[in-house]
Structure formats: C-alpha cells, structure tokens
Amino acid sequence: MRILVVGSGGREHALAWKISRSPLVRALYCAPGNPGIAQVARLLPVKADDLDGIVGQARSLGIDLVVVGPEAPLVQGLADRLALLGIPVFGPSRAAAEIEGSKAFAKEVMRAAGIPTAEHAAFTELEQALAFARARGGRVAVKADGLAAGKGVVVAGSLAEAERALRDMLVGRIHGDAGRRVVVEERLFGPEASVIAFTDGERVRVLPAAQDHKRVGDGDLGPNTGGMGAYSPTAKVTPAIAEEVERRVLLPALREMARRGRPFRGALYAGLMLTSEGVKVIEFNARMGDPETQPTLMRLTGDLVPALLGAARGDLGGVELAVDSRAAVGVVLAAEGYPGKPAAGDAILGADGPFEDGVQVFHAGTALAEDGRLVTAGGRVLTVCALGSGLAEARERAYRALSRISLRGGHYRKDIGVH
Length: 419
Known about the structure:
CATH class of the largest domain: Alpha Beta
Strand content: 25-35%
Mean pLDDT: 96
Shape: globular
CATH topology of the largest domain: D-amino Acid Aminotransferase, Chain A, domain 1
Number of strands: 24
Strand order of the largest sheet: 3-2-1-4-5
Largest sheet: 5 strands, parallel
Number of domains: 4
Number of helices: 12
Helix content: 25-40%
C-alpha cells in the first residue's frame, strides 16, 4: 500500500513510525512532516490544512490510505474531499468531526445519548454566561466552542477568574470566531484519563488507556499546555471502568452520531474525569491525542495498518489490537518560553541517540537549519518515550534518555508517570 500521513507533530511521527513497520507498506509519505518523520517517510511540502494540496498529492501519488493526525483538516472537510476520489481516510467526515469542532454540539450529542457529563450551558451573551458562572460560585470551566489550538479552556478557581475568561472570549475575542460562543460547565473534580478507540462507525477497538499531564509544571502547577507528557497504562482506568467507558460513552456516541446521519469513522477520543459520582466525559476529540498517542503506540505490538484501513473502510470485523504488557512513559521536552511564546532556532543536540532498546524519540516542533543542524520550531519539541516492565522502570529509562539531549532553555516536567 501507498500511505500518506497528514500532520507534523509528535503524534504524526508516532503514527508514521508505527506504520513504517508494517509489511503491508510499499511507500510511506507525510505532509508536511518533520525531520524525525523524514527518517521513516518521504516528506511532501504541503501544509496539513492545505486541502487542495493534500488532495492533489494523494491523487498524483496513487495513495491507497490517508491517515489524518490533526483536527483542523478534518473539521475543514479533508476526509470528504478524499472520499470523492475513492481514497479511504482514517479520520471522520466534516459533519462527524464537529464533535470536536464544536463543544456545544458535542454536549448536544452527550445529552441525547445519555452520556454522563458536567452540567453545562452554551452562551453568546456575556451577562447570561456570567449569571451561570456566578450561580456556581465561579467554580466552572469556560470553553471556547470552536477549535482554539488547545488553548480555549480555562478551569476557573474563582469567580474573578471565570469572569475574566468570559470577558476575554466573548468581548475580547482572544480566540476569534472560535470563542464567539462559549460552553460554561460545572467544574469536575477527580483524576483525568484518556481513552482512544478506533471505530468504523459502529464497532470500536479500544486502545490502552493513557494519562496525560496538561499543566506545565511539576505537581500539576502552572498554565495548561497541549500536554507535557503521558503514560500508559493508568491504574485509574480499571478493566471495569474501561468496560463502562465503552458501554456508556463510546458506543452510545457512535449510535447517536449515526442517528444524526453523521457516522464517525477514525479515532474517537474521550477525555474523562473519574469523579466520586463515576465517569464523566470532559470532551470528545475527532482524532488521537498528543502526547497520549506516543506512549500508547509504543505498547501496540501488532501491525497497525489493518486497524487503520478497517476503520477507514467501515469494517473493523476481525481486526484486533495486540497490546504489550509493559508500561510506556513519554516525556515532552519543550522550548524556552512555552506555553507562551516559544523560542525558535535553538540547536537540539543528542536527539538521534544512540539510545537503548525500547526508547523512541518522537519529533514535534523541530526543523533543519540551513547548515543541517536540528533546531527548535515549535513549543513542544520532542516526546521521549520508553518501555519498561512497570511505570517506574519506564520512567527511569525515559528520563535517562532525556538527560542525553541538550537544548538551551529547554524544560520538562520531572513527574510524568507519577500517580
């Protein structure tokens, strides 16, 4: 098969790395990719949100399967464009991707399907939103309705913080059109977890559960980020909870989406809060998570391509996912200034290893300078992943590998994988 991966981050590097190991692959491409992905795939100079460019390349290269990593091209309708050419796509249609593209729509789906979630309401007017937040003492989460590059959520610790977030979004329009409508919901408490499932629109194949670390600082302090690391498995998602998530969250969501004429094929991501009242859904994403994908794919031992193709074609029957019993930990190395304005062009030394077996370094915000040096080109630069007999060993091996990489001003959390 000739396969095209769309995207340029750590998630896409992990996907390309895993796909490249399949005996079914004849040629592997990535648009636009990054220097790490270039080690396993041919890079195409087309941005992920350049739908015309992606479609043109898929046609001219005779691509048999397109695997879309990021959400933006899915929400823009890339899968629909490719489907018109008869090219299978791992990723939902534009209509189905609205489950991530609009948080208000996702809440409608949850309500209609009886999926447990926080009490919430959607607003376009400031005073109404403020009244909802005040009635709950400011203990709310404020979310821009549309895509905001992972920065559209404020979990307020006070009424003043909630009011500031609402004014910033609805009046200041800090997220542009993505924040012209907001969802305000009661603040939930408990550990978070991520469950990702491959789905053909009806059936699911659930990947090993992972735990993400969102805040920039150790001990979950500081501002939210796109994710500073992740690990799998997580003891918080027991077999009973995993079964409950499939039965009460994933399958009802698929049935409701199909009922609305929006069958969902691809990766359905459920962000969960494990509250004292049980599992509640924080959000749905229409693609795999980053950085959860990196350690999760480290734990899949079989060929990933049949599952990607089965979901794309609408038939996962007979497809099973084999999981390594070992644990995996992924630690994000971030550029100086992240999650604010990250420094660019700083040299990265040691990212090519050599490293011990069971260690993989996935590139995200990297580029090659004119002189061939590897340099920073984004906030989250690398995800250093390692397998181990348990989380403790996986953590030790990941941090040992990370200690061999040098980046001026680079920073990372020291507690990834700590319960």
